[in-house]
Amino acid sequence: MRLLLINPNTSASMTEKAAITARAVAASGTEIIAATSRTGPASIEGYYDGALAVPGLLSELKERQTTGYDAAIVACFDDTGLDAARTFSDVPVLGLCESAVATAGFLAQRFTVVTTLERSRVLIDNLIQRYGMGGRAKVRASDIAVLELEDAASGAIGKLRSEIERALEEDGAEAIVLGCAGMTDLARELQEIYGVPVIDGVAAAVKQAEALVSLGLSTSKRGSYASPLPKPFSGAMSDFTPMSASG
Amino acid sequence: MRLLLINPNTSASMTEKAAITARAVAASGTEIIAATSRTGPASIEGYYDGALAVPGLLSELKERQTTGYDAAIVACFDDTGLDAARTFSDVPVLGLCESAVATAGFLAQRFTVVTTLERSRVLIDNLIQRYGMGGRAKVRASDIAVLELEDAASGAIGKLRSEIERALEEDGAEAIVLGCAGMTDLARELQEIYGVPVIDGVAAAVKQAEALVSLGLSTSKRGSYASPLPKPFSGAMSDFTPMSASG
Amino acid sequence: MRLLLINPNTSASMTEKAAITARAVAASGTEIIAATSRTGPASIEGYYDGALAVPGLLSELKERQTTGYDAAIVACFDDTGLDAARTFSDVPVLGLCESAVATAGFLAQRFTVVTTLERSRVLIDNLIQRYGMGGRAKVRASDIAVLELEDAASGAIGKLRSEIERALEEDGAEAIVLGCAGMTDLARELQEIYGVPVIDGVAAAVKQAEALVSLGLSTSKRGSYASPLPKPFSGAMSDFTPMSASG
Amino acid sequence: MRLLLINPNTSASMTEKAAITARAVAASGTEIIAATSRTGPASIEGYYDGALAVPGLLSELKERQTTGYDAAIVACFDDTGLDAARTFSDVPVLGLCESAVATAGFLAQRFTVVTTLERSRVLIDNLIQRYGMGGRAKVRASDIAVLELEDAASGAIGKLRSEIERALEEDGAEAIVLGCAGMTDLARELQEIYGVPVIDGVAAAVKQAEALVSLGLSTSKRGSYASPLPKPFSGAMSDFTPMSASG
Amino acid sequence: MRLLLINPNTSASMTEKAAITARAVAASGTEIIAATSRTGPASIEGYYDGALAVPGLLSELKERQTTGYDAAIVACFDDTGLDAARTFSDVPVLGLCESAVATAGFLAQRFTVVTTLERSRVLIDNLIQRYGMGGRAKVRASDIAVLELEDAASGAIGKLRSEIERALEEDGAEAIVLGCAGMTDLARELQEIYGVPVIDGVAAAVKQAEALVSLGLSTSKRGSYASPLPKPFSGAMSDFTPMSASG
Amino acid sequence: MRLLLINPNTSASMTEKAAITARAVAASGTEIIAATSRTGPASIEGYYDGALAVPGLLSELKERQTTGYDAAIVACFDDTGLDAARTFSDVPVLGLCESAVATAGFLAQRFTVVTTLERSRVLIDNLIQRYGMGGRAKVRASDIAVLELEDAASGAIGKLRSEIERALEEDGAEAIVLGCAGMTDLARELQEIYGVPVIDGVAAAVKQAEALVSLGLSTSKRGSYASPLPKPFSGAMSDFTPMSASG
């Protein structure tokens, strides 16, 4: 089984970190193909960054079709471009937020997502409401820039731990979800420290992707994720013209 | 007051139709600047088309800054790229769906949105839930392709009318919202035929844009719509590097 | 265009304050007809005051029909009698709360309404839930009596500012809605102080009324706002007998 | 124990019918004091009628204080003026809709309210959402005018039965709530015919009133139902000036 | 009228306390039959205890049928086994939580349930969401073990009072619901101290049971509470084989 | 990895069918230990059957601890006793409904669960609301008794197919979830026939169990699933006395 893990921002160091986690949790027969988007922002912090990361993400999905993959993972906790990727693709596509909160739901009745910046807090809260976890999960920002997570001297981990402690104390959180792909390497250690499940989206998405592939399930092509209709795409986006449109 | 009306798909005929409506309802001092995206799909039907329309939309928003505008309207009922546009922009940005359902809410307690294809139905239903109208509004698809609305011989209007009649009969709809920018020219006539308010998103958005500008209100830059942070953007997206990042 | 602005309480000083705001934001061709209810409570604080303000409000709506108006505004943030006014009237009727929260929704994803007394807090929260903003807006009381807002020496503005500051800090509010018609004169200054959108219901309602009139839209007469049925009204309410009933 | 049953419309025949039910279900020590409003509409069908019934209702509540009552019931399924009555009163006040749906909730997980006219359907649906039963109850209109229920030849009962049958078949209703005070005499017979619980609001409210009185519970005077504040009431409403205001 | 009050835990002292309350509030013609489960946990704290209390509860319901009862009350605030009891029984069955929150809903728009241990908080919050009060009620734990309520020296009452004070201050609670059957003796005194309605589930359930019986209403046997189907029950549960199955 | 698959009803043929599916989808290193409850109903149809199946389920969980398992699956679509099992257990416990709807959520935005009898429909709908999928999923009953699924001549499959067809046509379902463990063998074939994802709970739960075990995640022991407290258990339930209680 080949899983395509696409980092939709252009920071290769984040891709590498996510790939390490993915490979660590993957089943023995699973190959992780890690890809970094070649076009778009260096990190995804808010709606503008996210929207401009989608073409790069779709390019990777498309170009890697020639070498093949059985499922894809969008390695950003904002689930950037997930709906578009599912519409485009014939294989399952997983997002980190959706995978992580579904996983948390099997372990705890109430949990808290701890993310980076305030600007991402409401965005993730909206995702969680759409995924149906609005009554069970809170979202907290810990005032960390995404790329500070790459820098051990930034103090980011201290801020993250403070916010986890507030979640346990004030929210009655029964589990913690790490709300940024850049936190993926911290899950195990934080789980040991706090004694509650700490869920990382990269790891969760790998297991969900493996599950869907092994069950022979893929995105429904009936209704909202139906394949793109043939039609002209203009200008810089002409590469994305649906293949059936060229026939 | 100058309102920038951007059609995020690349079909100039749809832009023209929307501009006619916009100019017809605009206040005497309002100038409508109609722009057609130069990059992306010819029509927006589903998530894939929508995601690939956003860079073209943001390009128009950015390039037109030199000549200036007081508010912008994204002229697609899917509210394509609306969050990203609000994050980017310092002036108010309005979407058709959000404007239309807010307007309908002043006129009726229960209403139905009639859109084009089934693939757009759930997408719009999700928007309506996010905008808080989920308990008050239903969404129906009438099996019309967006560009069929440009073709009088397509039978599209008959299908639309059948679905409106079902909404009145089966949903107890007190008003109808037209769920596609391409239906903008039909609102007045349908309102006369059916004797209930028929709300068109283009017209609604123009009035909301005028309202915000005249009240001196603009998108909050605190929290989820805070301006993009400075950071590198790579490849085909490098033109979108936030200006403050270059300093 | 003639907009009837009815203050449903009997304090003419509040009417005057609302009329100043209304005229300041009205379009050049809009005439504001300000009316003070002649029967009912001096201010509206809670359900009892509100219910007893409705006949006076409906009287103004009815008596002013002879001179004519194109839309009406109920100038109390509790949206006192709004449903009854819409049922009675053939022209659009706007409430302050509904107009303000719809306007806030175009500017911010999360916002806080700051109102006067605790007894109005849940009442407004119920309105906001009904209008679909329950997941996006919080309501705070600032322990101010409505008529204290007419008295510069009351300390009311200090209390209001403290509560706004708590909303920004504790709620993560991205915008503020002023939850009482008596605060209408403070919006601009507070917006400058806090750097987030501050929305006043009087101003918002004027623009929504102008929008509906210019779009040729009025309250649906199908379903819940259908015109009153002919039937006898007894005693002190006999003046309200629906006109069609007398035929 | 003395229960004041106020019919907020001015049709004495409806009061009499409700009083018969109330006396039939009252406990041995309970006295039912039936009162008909002396001012307002002959029947309550929609928001306009409802709003204009409230002063008459509050007058009865106030004037009957001299002879005393332990709890009051507003005998209209729209729960007309219930919030105002609770704010005014020092004893418990019950509404028919709230009492009936709470009672239904002990008997069935899903149920349907069958009311009279379409114009009341959404009004009741909004009540049910506010009372928290929106996910469990549907509302159906059976195209009956309220006063037709007083007329055996009107065909009203046939229409009501048809709608109950649709509720059982199409909604999977496990119980039926009769959505108009004028249907109170039909509950027992319909329950026998259909073999599911049929709940009448008058009977339900009598038992809830008895329960609260015997438990020594009354409306909270903290927060939203706090007693009216002293202030002037003008014109035709001056009789409603809160007593503490005169001190 | 005979009401069977079953304590689903095996602590007879708690049964006695509940019976005292029940008899104090029962109508003159109501006989309270108090029963203590003979199999299961000594107290119910969390899901495991609750699940293992259900067979004992159903045994009491079944064995007491020979001597007869008109309604049953499950005397635990977790509404332990309530759905199963309603499915089994031909008479009304009431739970403490459901009865108490319905009663609170007639008295206050916002209220707080104060329960014992943190492990019961989310369980009760889930009940309250299912009963439709999620938007109106909060749940607080006061760190008291259930059986500490039997011990005057445990400090339990002090902890309970502290949590009530926090509910009034921080939640804006308009009423308090006592979230454990073991608190039943404290309601009157706490109501006097705090001046807001304090609702006890035992008392509330007795009155609801009396109401349903006197109205001739019982659990719907259509749909989700339909009587058990005949089928074999094995092993230790064979005594529970539905009677119709043996025919 | 050893997964304990417990059929909480006592029909060994159903256990066998579930075990076949489980083994077919399990990863190469996963051993499926299939267990049939030895006490309780032959099938689970409604709340009474479900409650009386829980002690047998917990017995299996407990007795099998000596031989060891890494996660457990409750093989009934009603998620019978799932909360109690999670409270009891130190390893992850999965239910079929929760696993299936989470899986469906990755594949489709709107889907329908097709179950057996009407009496299970609302029960499952309540589960789905609690799991947060209430806005995305409908539940339909197909009038099949659970054990008819064991009998090829019962016509059960025809009824099931009719209901799936109605779901696709009337609900706009994008995927189908099979709402009974006894349908597990039909998923693949139905998926081929209808061309939409068809999700079976047994298969879904196996993959979720594998995922949690391989990620080192288990049920949170903080809050609602905290381990049972030591206390006496009486009578037939004394075997369930928490082990720590005996210390």
TrEMBL record, chains A, B, C, D, E, F:
It is an enzyme of class 5 (isomerase). It catalyses: D-5-isobutylhydantoin = L-5-isobutylhydantoin; D-5-benzylhydantoin = L-5-benzylhydantoin; a D-5-monosubstituted hydantoin = a L-5-monosubstituted hydantoin. InterPro entries: Asp/Glu/hydantoin_racemase (IPR015942), Asp/Glu_race (IPR001920), Hydantoin_racemase-like (IPR052186), Iso_Racemase_Enz_sf (IPR053714). It comes from the Bacteria. GO terms for molecular function: amino-acid racemase activity; hydantoin racemase activity. Pfam families: Asp_Glu_race (PF01177). Its EC number is 5.1.99.5. Keywords: Plasmid. Transmembrane segments: none annotated. Belongs to the HyuE racemase family. PANTHER family: PROTEIN DCG1 (PTHR28047:SF5). This is Hydantoin racemase.
